[in-house]
Amino acid sequence: MTSRLNIIRLPVLITLALAAVQFILEATGLTASTLVNISWLIPIIAIWLTMTCLRNDMGYGGFINSFLLYTVAVRLPVILLTVIGKTTGLGEAYFTYGRNLLFGLVLPHVILWPVASLILGTLLWPVIALTMKGRQVSYRGAVSGVVVILLLIFVGLPYVISTLYTGGIGGRRSAHKTPDEYQIAYEDITLTTSDGLKIQGWYLPNETGRGTIIYCHGLFNQRSEMIDQAAFMHEQGYRGLLFDFRRHGKSDGDLTSFGYYERRDVEAALRYAIDERDETGPIILWGISMGAANTLLAAAEQPEVDAVIAESSFYSVSETLAQDLGRMFRLPQFPFADIIELITEIRLGIDIGDLHIGRAAAKIHNRPILLVGGTADTRMPIRNNERLYADIQGPMKDQLIVEGATHGDIWEMATEAYIKKVISFLKQHNLLIPIPTEASISPADE
Q1: Are 71 and 113 in contact (CB under 8 A)?
Q2: What is the pLDDT of residue 136?
Q3: Is the pLDDT of residue 88 over 80?
Q4: For 179-315+355-445, CATH number?
Q5: 109 Cβ partners below 8 Å, 6+ apart?
Q6: How far is CA 270 from CA 204, 257, 280, in A?
Q7: Residue limits of CATH 3.40.50.1820 in the chain
Q8: Helix-then-strand count for the chain, H and E
Q9: Mean per-residue pLDDT of the chain
Q10: In this predicted model, what pLDDT tens digit does every residue of 326-344 receive, in sequence order?
C-alpha cells in the first residue's frame, strides 16, 4: 500500500512552488499576484487525494489523515513566508497579518485551515467514493463524515469559542505604563485570594489622603489600563490599588471566569487595604467592563465598600455571550449559545446563571453607585446601564452617558466631562478629598 508521505509528496511540492511564485509576485508588487493564490488549489488537491486514496483502497481515515498531513506540510512554510512578509514589509495581501499575532497568524493557519480541510475532505469523500466504489463505501464515508462534521460544528467550534472567552490560549498583556511615569511613589504588592492564588498589583500610598480607590481593569487587559484615572485621583488625595485579575498580567491563574471567581481578587484587594494598610477612610471600587461587573458583584457581598464607579458593565454573562455570537462570530444564538454556555460551565466549574449583574446590583442598598457608559458601545450597549440603574435600589445612584463613546474609550474621549461627573458624585456623597491647587492628569499635560 502506498504510504501517506508518498501520496502527498507531489501535491505538497506543487503547492509550495505556487506559494513561492505568489510570494515573489506579491513582494515585487505585480498585480498578477492576485491571480496566483494557493487557496484555489486546495479543493483540487482534496479531490485528487480522495481519488488516489480510493484507488489504493484507503478508507476515510487514511484519506483524512493524508489530507491533514498535506495541510500541515503546506501551512508551516506559509507561516514562515508570512512572517518574512510581515517583518520585511514585502507581504501585502496574503503574506502578512495584522497587529495581533495570535488571531492574525497562529489561529488561521494552525487551527482554522486544518479544520476547514477536515470539513472539506469529509464532504468530498462520500460523493467521490459513491462515483468510484459504489454505495457501500460511500455510505460508510457518509456516516463517518456526518459524525465528524456534527462533532466539529456542535462540539469543536463551541469549545474553541469557549476557550477564546476564558483565555485558555494566547499570551497575556503586560503593563505598558507604571506610576513612575506620573512621578507617583508606589509599591509592588502580592495579594492572596481566598482560593490561594497570588495576585500581583501596585499600591499607591498617599500620606495626606484619606480613603482608597481600588481599580479593576477589563477582560484581557491589565492593571495599567486605569493608570490615568489612578494618577488623577491620587492628586485628589486618594490612595490607590491597581492589580491584575487572575489569568491576567502577572497574576496566577489559567482561566478567567467573567467575575465568578474574580470577585475573590477584588475581595483580596479590599482586605489588603483594610487589614494590611489599616484604611479607615472610604473605600471606592472603580472598574471598566469585566472590572465594572466585578465591582458590583463585590459591593453586593462586601459591606466595607463605600461606593462604586462602574463603566460599561455587562448585565449578565449569558446575554453577553449570546450577543457576541452574532456580533463577533456570525453564528446564530440557537443552539450555539446554550452549547457554549454549557461547555464553559463544565470547564470552569461554575453556573453562568449566577453571573447576573442586575441581580447583584439590586442587593446594594444605600451606597453611592455611578454608572458610566457610551452610546456607541456595541460590546456593552448603553441599555445595560439603563437596566442596571433601574435595578439599583435607593436614591444614591447616578449616571454619566457619553454620546459617541465606544467600549473602553470614555476617559480618553471625554476626560473633562468624566472628571467633572466623578468629582460632583464624590462631593454629593461626602467622599471627596479637597483638590490641590497644582494638579495634572498625566505627564502629557505637564
Answers
A1: yes
A2: 61
A3: yes
A4: 3.40.50.1820
A5: 75, 78, 79, 82
A6: 14, 20, 12
A7: 179-315+355-445
A8: 16, 8
A9: 88
A10: 877 778 888 999 999 999 9
